[in-house]
Design brief:
Helix content: 25-40%
CATH class of the largest domain: Alpha Beta
Order of helices and strands: HEEHHEEHEEHEHHHEEEHEHEHEHEHEEH
CATH topology of the largest domain: BirA Bifunctional Protein, domain 2
Low-confidence stretches: none
Strand order of the largest sheet: 1-5-6-11-10-9-7-8
Largest sheet: 8 strands, mixed
Number of strands: 16
Number of domains: 2
CATH superfamily of the largest domain: Bira Bifunctional Protein, Domain 2
Structural class: alpha+beta
Mean pLDDT: 91
Length: about 425
């Protein structure tokens, strides 16, 4: 019986890999221009990191993490997101010692036990950026603009940027009280998860997919009425900066994000044609996370974007480029001596920088020429008994069928010149 990949995972096949490389190159290009440097963290971490960082009571920690005990009896978790890991690396490696603002980006696999569906896998890939060390609202605006700039550079239009503020430890308790007072006589109308959230984190009720459309949600208190002066000023500054950059956005008072570490700015970028899974990027400020994980109080802000969803959006709009993986030289060899010589020349061609291939199935010259044509090779290098005897090779230009006999000693240089032309 064939063993299939685990449910919720997918192979990235050779026919698809060019699209992934295209996206990754775009990511590295834009992050370099914005002065973000790449970091790679372990795929698994101590479970405590996510309990403390993401927050117990969140769906991610309570329902979605892949957690297991290793052979040493330690609780280990496959990373469900990368911000906590980036912060752990920032602290462990003392990245804060060299710069007042540390700017990182990452690309990698994340893991969440969720019901697999379009745009939602159990192993998924994210690109994200983190700016650690500064409270300035300009850093928030830069992060949001970077996300927009990246998505627009891929050709995506009509992006919906939603922003909100989720307050800080000073003003959030006031909002929490108001929410609990509002929902206290509506508990029996809330889903089971939201009944649990009522005590742990009533803000999470606001973005519940089950309860979001219920009529009474329209009258729920809004955090803007509870903000302290510092949070209000910060949020106003972020809005002004985005306006100065020409970013179209709307304020969504129910946008709270799914992770407990967010403070002040929260944002999400949606691409409506994707339907139910329209969020392609999201993030915000997390000024308390570094202290929660064991560092000194340090402001920080970041975002993550789902690569699978971005690829789906590009495919939907026919925005993915066409890639031609053509071969420069295909060697056609007939006979044992010819095959031995062909193998030597194959390696020489590759070491000279050309893309070269040959047939290893000992098929007829006709079958090999057919394979050369299918591979879209520019040149066929033909070696048979006569070529071995005369110490030559026959080159055939597969575009115009012109043929030339070239001495073996000159064949690599000839191939280079004709491929480049």
């Amino acid at each position: 019986m064939i063993i299939n990949a685990p449910r919720g995972t997918k192979d990235i096949l050779p026919s698809q890999i060019d699209n992934w490389i295209f996206i990754e190159n775009k990511i590295r290009d834009i992050c370099t221009r914005y002065n973000y440097t790449e970091i790679r963290t372990p795929i698994f971490e101590h479970t405590e990191l996510f309990h403390r960082g993401i927050g117990e009571g969140t769906d991610v920690v309570d329902k979605e993490m892949y957690t297991f005990e290793d052979r040493g009896g330690r609780s280990i978790t496959l990373r469900p997101e990368n911000t906590a890991s980036a912060v752990r690396a920032y602290l462990q490696n003392k990245l804060f010692a060299d710069k007042a603002l540390v700017k990182l980006f990452y690309i990698g696999s994340m893991f969440r036990y969720d019901r697999p569906q379009a745009g939602r896998l159990r192993e998924f890939h994210q690109f994200g950026v983190e700016a650690l060390g500064q409270m300035n609202p300009a850093v928030d605006a830069e992060i949001i603009f970077l996300a927009v700039d990246f998505l627009e550079s891929l050709g995506l239009k009509d992006l919906m940027v939603k922003i909100n503020t989720v307050g800080c430890p000073k003003c959030r308790p006031v909002y929490r009280q108001k929410l609990q007072h509002f929902f206290s006589d509506k508990l029996d109308m809330l889903c089971h998860d939201c009944q649990t959230r009522f005590d742990k984190n009533p803000m999470r009720i606001l973005d519940c997919k089950n309860d979001a459309d219920k009529e009474f949600m329209e009258d729920a208190p809004q955090i803007k009425d509870c903000l302290c002066d510092d949070c209000r000023e910060h949020f106003n500054s972020v809005q002004k900066l985005l306006q100065s950059l020409g970013v179209n956005f709307e304020i969504d008072s129910r946008l709270v994000r799914g992770l407990d570490y967010y403070t002040k700015t929260a944002f999400e970028i949606q691409y409506a044609p994707l339907g139910a899974q329209s969020a392609v990027a999201g993030g915000g400020r997390y000024d308390g996370l570094i202290e929660e994980i064991g560092g000194n109080p340090t402001p920080a802000v970041g975002f993550a974007a789902g690569i699978e969803r971005i690829l789906a959006a590009l495919e939907l709009q026919n925005l993915l480029p066409t890639f031609e993986n053509n071969i420069d030289v295909f060697i056609v060899a007939v006979g044992d001596e010819a095959e031995s010589l062909a193998f030597e020349l194959l390696i020489k061609l590759r070491r000279a920088g050309l893309i070269a291939a040959m047939d290893f199935a000992k098929r007829s010259i006709k079958a090999q020429m057919k394979q050369a044509g299918k591979s879209n090779a520019k040149l066929a290098m033909i070696i048979g008994e006569d070529e071995v005897k005369n110490k030559t090779v026959t080159f055939k230009n597969l575009a115009n069928s012109e043929q030339q006999n070239i001495e073996i000693n000159n064949c690599i240089e000839f191939a280079i010149q004709n491929v480049k032309n």
